[in-house]
Amino acid sequence: MKIAIGNDHAAPELKLAVVEHLKAQGIECIDMGCAAGEKCDYPNAAAAVCEKVLGGEADLGILICGTGVGMSLAANKFKGIRAACCSECFSARLTREHNNANVLCFGARVVGEGTAMDLVDAFVHTEFSGDERHQRRIDLITAIEERN
Ligand code: RB5
Question: Whose CA is nearest to atom 3 of ligand 1?
Fold first, then answer.
């Protein structure tokens, strides 16, 4: 599995910790975020990660900013991206199972490192259920995207 990961200046340390955490599980990371000491605008990092996911170079994306909210707003502007901003594991798991989310967002100023790793594990290790009712609802989201 390959994960594209991005961050702004609120989260370079947490991003590195997530990369290490995933690498330790044999999961490859494409780091599109900024380094400590750099300033970077979250929409640019979100775009870089979403392009990797939509282009098939990454299976899933992870975006970390101060709150996770700006990243999710930017990511969800991409057709085909379903980005979920989560701060607890139940949602991180269910957004894969039910929404087939392909990008996880969270805030380095919201969650600590322990919760961040749990969010990442819940998201990365959960598959979409494939259930017809969930797929129908995802198709309705896609239809909204197509109309607007
Ligand atoms: C940057 O200071 C902050 O606005 C950003 O990290 C994020 O929280 C935006 O949603």
Answer: 66
Ligand 1 proximity of 67 Cβ (cutoff 6 Å): yes
Instruction: Say if residues 71 and 42 touch (Cβ distance below 8 Å).
Output: yes
Distance CA 15, CA 61 (A): 12
The C-alpha atoms of residue 56 and residue 2 are separated, in whole angstroms, by 10
Mean pLDDT within 25-39: 97
The DSSP result for 97-136, as a single string, is HTT---EEEEETTTS-HHHHHHHHHHHHT------HHHHH
Question: Pairing relation of β-strands 103-107 and 2-7?
Answer: unpaired
Q: Is the CB of 65 under 6 A from ligand 1?
A: yes
Cβ of 8 closer than 6 Å to ligand 1, yes or no, is yes
Whole-number Å distance, alpha carbon 107 to ligand 1 midpoint, is 8
Cβ atoms of 92 and 86 within 8 Å: the answer is yes
Closest approach atom of ligand 1 to CA 73: 10
Q: What is the pLDDT of residue 71?
A: 98
Average confidence (pLDDT) over 16-35: 98
